[in-house]
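Thread: quick sanity check before group meeting

JM: Hey all, I'm pulling together slides for Thursday and realized we never actually wrote out the predicted structure for the chain we discussed last week. Dropping the sequence here so it's in one place. If anyone has concerns about the input, flag it before I start.
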Amino acid sequence: MKMAVFFRRHSALIILLFLSCTSEEVQQSDFVEATNVQTLERELLTSVNDYRVSIGKGILEFNAIAYDAANDHNDYMISKGSLSHDNFNQRASKIYAETSAKEIAENVGRNFQTAEEALQWWLNSPSHRSSLEGNFTHTGISVKKDNLGNIYYTQIFFK
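JM (edit): ok, ran it. Output follows.
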């Protein structure tokens, strides 16, 4: 009898505790889908490919799977409010599973006002430059703006 009274009085609290602990709700509340800046995406792909041709590398083909992964990662970074390579292994695993990829790399950045500015910043960073100049064949570039006007960039490369 005492247990039945306890559950009636506290059932709403128990249900709320149970619901607040589900991973699905945590993921959904942390994930914000931002708007793509497609002009910058196209300009950056052109700039990257122009640079690669100028150094004797092949152009990178657009790949929708890499683009989707880059978009998801930008949404993640926007929800966190910071740059990161968090969960890179998960993105890479998905790309490996859905393509014939043998190697995958990623560049991220924030608040470049132009595609050329993003490219120059990446070229000035040895690790980012290595990805840009790598022996890759495919790419997806996502550029998204958050509600504060910050612009996030993710480029995924693979071969």
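AS: nice. Residues 2-20 form the longest helix (19 residues). Residues 109 and 153 are 5 Å apart (CA to CA).
JM: adding both to the slides.
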